[in-house]
Amino acid sequence: MGMTIAQKIIKNHLISGSMVPGSEIALRIDQTLTQDATGTMAYLEFETMGIERVRTELSVAYIDHNTLQCGFENADDHRYIQTVAKKHGIRFSRPGNGICHQVHLERFGVPGKTLIGSDSHTPTGGGIGMLAFGAGGMDVAVAMGGGAYYITMPKMFKVNLTGRLRPFVTAKDVSLEILRILSVKGGVGAIIEWGGEGVKTLTVPERATITNMGTELGATTSIFPSDEITREFLKAEGREADWVALESDADAEYDRIIDINLDTLEPLIACPHSPDNVKKVAELKGTKVDQVCIGSCTNSSLMDMLKVAALLRGKTIDPSVSLSISPGSKQVLSMLASSGALNDILASGARVLECACGPCIGMGFSPNSAGVSLRTFNRNFLGRSGTADAGVHLVSPETAVAAALTGYVTDPRLLGEMPEITMPEAFRIDDTAVILPASPEEAKDVEVVRGPNIKPFPQSKAVGDTIEAPLTLKVGDNITTDHIMPAGAKILPYRSNIPHLSQFCFSVCDATFPERAKAAGESIVVGGSNYGQGSSREHAALVPMYLGVRAVIAKSFARIHVANLINAGILPLTFKNPEDYDALNQGDALALENIHAGMDAGEIVLKDLTTGQSIPLSCDFTERQKDMLKAGGLLAYTAGMN
Predict the structure, then answer these.
(1) Residue 524: beta bridge partners?
(2) How confident is the model at residue 165 (pLDDT cuts 50, 70, 90)?
(3) Distance between CA 34 and CA 44 in Å, rounded?
(4) φ and ψ at 188, to 5 degrees?
(5) 405 near 292, Cβ under 8 Å?
């Protein structure tokens, strides 16, 4: 039997385990990336390991999230990351150089290599044939130290593309179509490979848009072949030597095959508050729009921006609409400026923001009260924009421009003829904003600078044989990491300060939770299906751990979050019978007994001491995960092995 692209890369990087879906495998990691919202914690964790220098082929620290400096906190974090990177052999991408995924695609990504990043949209690298995973900061820290990255061997899905996208129908619409088909949990446990004759019609930036949005499917990662189109992109970046050909074998087998005809796609829109709430743009025709945001790691490439500039040329945005443009990198911004396209954008009335994540994570440009915002981003979770009652919709850049010009949701095909935009033969190369680390000899004299906002890493607690605690919070399906640990300009500056950050935990669901959890001392949280979807932010596990959450019981978990819970020493359990979820009430006194024996047996019984009911819970842990939980999480487990 032949192999898929992902299986070939896994085989070449397999350290231990069997490539049987559902079994645990350990992978050698070639590259890592961090960003500043998760990076400080990852580097604090790396420092606790006592390793002098990273052992990967390449590690890069990006500053792209916390770039609004309203106080000292973000600036201090940036200084810490820069100095710790210099000391330990990590390249440092300065603020303004761009969004980690866009810059990594341009300057560092290599087909056939493995990459993990402390950001859930790291699978963007699959656009050039990398096997790229989003991960928690602890996993990234371990990989930087030369340790393996452990995942459950995924199933293999294939999406066969036929035909060619028509004018004003885009890669973003392909992403929204697969979300419509599979939903935000339809890719859980799978790697999605994109193939078929239609792939040859997509540029690398278009492919990267699709692999970026694959994260919203819950997929382990997504990947495209590395072909002549990939080669031309790398050649234009001055990196043709990094190219290798990658394709699946003709007789490769897949667990599921999905066919999408690009010829028949129409402009699509994801409505509030989920990326899979997808409709045709034409269905929302006439909906008043207050704000439009173009950018993010999904749609901020030079190709995207040139299309936007061409559509805005000689036109002015509607007076009732506020339009922001966020180029994905310094390379993109400089080429927009040199080509004259930036003038077309500015003349339209758009506001050009810096090359950073910005509004996508609620870092500025929040909508007005109850405002309708059309964004080219990847997520539209409730409250993520910074405005609790805003209605955020996800669209392509072309649909975004149509709304900005008319003031209403408008099918972009009504704008007339689509200008033809082609990939440049050569990109402008300027890596001066990437600071190289000190040599091993020089590193001995480098001082790591820590500001007062950087607090010690919180201590986890080993999972004993019994947990008795109240059910302090019960939530529903599709609880995201934005629900658990919100982002935004007011909260993100405290990513290095878990005690302060804890007062915002679950504030989207229940503002009283932090105080109630503290008062309880120890507690249990109950959730529905797909608990923890969204970001890779390990703060959504570390902060509950700090507040005394000892176990989370849910109908099902998102991949990265369940790994983060185990890394933090929190016991993740699932209902053996999903209907038992209804039997539990917030405030009930709960007990988990004989936990260690239950972990070995694969079942732990939950006793509701308030109602007297007993509920069976499933726990499918590997031996390594059991040992991690008994030790109190990944760092304690790793320390115990040394």
Answers:
(1) 471, 551
(2) very high
(3) 12
(4) -60, 130
(5) no
- The position carrying tokens 């990109």 is 427
End-to-end CA separation in angstroms for the chain: 41
pLDDT in tens, 345-404: 999 999 999 999 999 988 889 999 999 999 999 999 888 888 989 999 999 999 999 999
Count the neighbouring beta carbons within 10 Å of the beta carbon of residue 456. Answer: 9
Torsion of CA 398, 402, 407, 411, to 10 degrees: -100
**C-alpha–C-alpha distance, residues 165 and 175, integer Å:** 13
pLDDT digits (tens, 9 = 90+) for 86-143: 999 999 999 999 999 999 999 999 999 999 999 999 999 999 999 999 999 999 999 9
d(CA 224, CA 211): 8
Mean pLDDT value across residues 457-478: 93
State the residue for tokens 């420092």: 47
**103: its two tokens:** 């810059």
Note whether 318 and 407 are within 8 A (CB): yes
Q: For residues 341 and 347, what is the distance between their CA atoms, to the nearest angstrom? A: 10
Q: What pLDDT, in 10s, does the model give residues 508-525?
A: 899 999 999 999 999 999
Other C-beta atoms lying within 10 Å of the C-beta of residue 318? 17
Classify 293 as helix, strand or coil.
strand
The Cα-based distances of 373 to 163, 359, 508, 523 in angstroms read: 32, 11, 20, 38
Chain centroid, CA 428 distance in Å = 28
CA 253 from chain centre, in angstroms, equals: 28
Inter-residue contact 391 to 370 (CB < 8 Å)? yes
User: 259 has which bridge partners?
Assistant: 160
Locus of tokens 């927009």: 336
Q: Would you call 332 helix, strand, or coil by DSSP?
A: helix
- 515, amino acid identity: E
SS3 content of the chain, % helix, strand, coil (to 5): 35, 20, 45
User: What CA–CA distance (Å, rounded) separates 180 from 157?
Assistant: 16
Find the DSSP H helices in 120-241: 137-144, 171-182, 204-213, 228-236
Angle formed by the axes of helices 623-631 and 559-567, to 10°? 50
CA distances from 313 to 130, 243, 401, 414, 531 (A): 36, 36, 11, 16, 44
Closest by CA position to 353, among listed 401, 294, 407, 406 = 294
Q: What angle do CA 103, 106, 112 make, to 5 degrees?
A: 110
Residues in CB range of 556: below 8 A, 6 or more apart: 185, 188, 529, 530, 531, 574
Residue 27 in tokens: 């992978």
DSSP character for 423?
-
Number of Cβ within a 10 Å radius of residue 99:
31
Tokens of 96: 């303004």
Neighbours of 537 (CB within 10 A): 29
Q: pTM of the predicted model, to two decimals?
A: 0.93
CA 457 to chain centre: 23
| DSSP run (H or E) holding 294 | strand 291-294
**How is residue 128 written in tokens?**
């050039």
- Interatomic CA distance for residues 149 and 191, integer angstroms: 16
Residues 6+ apart with CB under 8 A from 343: none
